[in-house]
Sequence to fold (443 residues):
Amino acid sequence: MGMKVFIETYGCQMNVNDSEVVLSILQDAGYTRCMDISEADLILVNTCSVRDNAEQRVLGRLDVFRLEKKKRPVLVGVLGCMAERLKEKLLENEAVDIVAGPDSYRELPRLVSAARLESKQIDTLLSHEETYGDIAPVRMDSNGVSAFISIMRGCNNVCSYCIVPFVRGAERSRDPESILREAKSLIENGYKEINLLGQNVDSYRWKNPENHADRVDFARLLEMVALLDPTVRVRFATSHPKDMSDGVLYTMAMYDNICKHIHLPVQSGSDVMLKKMNRKYTRESYLERISKIREILPECSITTDVIAGFCGETEEDHRQTISLFNEVNFDSAFMFQYSERPGTKAARQFADDVPLEVKTERLEEIITLQNEISLDRNILCVGNVYEVLIEGPSKRSPLDLMGRTSGNKTCIFPARGHKAGEYVNVRILSCSSATLKGEIVED
Ligand code: SF4
Fold:
């Protein structure tokens, strides 16, 4: 009772949401959150394994925690994907007392007590059922406007470069009633935007265990959340080109409060690479999804993920990626160079044979091109008026506010007495490749 817990989170939004679940579990067990590491009785670091540098950063933090342990009795626990990937190996680190994988968070109070009384503890059992659906996350560091709800856990796709299926386990979809309950509670607490999260939201499939005919797919779930309150925006990530249905696109078109933005990772423009990555779609089928989005949702902004320098990538494969970027004109993209992850299919079967300098060169070419395209896409917004949901003060100028359009474009504008959580109409006056700048148009 009364132990103070300090939680540090790395990686994706799923991890941030998991840390909120962890805090909820620990608060129910009598812990209180502290923001200063020197006050903590328990330090938890929720980790990411998507690339090597993410893990290196955590190892650096463990060195800091080891010094903290020298000063006073404090327990250190490693959670998340790195805990699941490295398991017992992490217990060899002097700083670490507890290792808990993404499906073991209910066990944390027991693991902490045992670690305090006996010895180092570990639980990295992956589950086929666990969704933490009955646990109300404790919102951390939230702006009080936008919040995230995990609608599913794990992934069955096993893209050959990806560690996620090995550290987050098989796919399981959460009971829609528990998702709606969480959404209603957010709306009652004044949140104006709900982000539905999943590694691959398009494969959300819930079947009522009592009545198998009662099923909910992602299009239906999206509609159920949108119907809760038309003044509350709904967003979702991440989509998968092989599973994204027309049903999802038509549902987005039917409801104004479903934001017109789709994040659709492509990873490469070359069919040879897509096959080797086990992405289960081709360049042509990807482009077909893009044209379908633009047919049903002409104003929809589209963003993506891309990997440069995957195993065996030739100059011709790279040119295919460049030509696809020129053809699609994404609004923006997350761009990375291939980082081999131990345990993945690629690490087991393919040589990481693209020289580092070539990977970097290709990545830089993609980044330069995408920045030009993002700027061109944003220039098309200048002069137009967009509805913006204010999220808070601009980081750069205290007199300005920051918000996002339905198309997920960041917008900066003078406050003029408005505040976070309000919708305002903003006329775009100028832009950069990353940001739109404008002024509020009063009704
Ligand atoms: S879809 Fe592929 S890249 Fe995305 S989490 Fe699943 S395995 Fe990883």
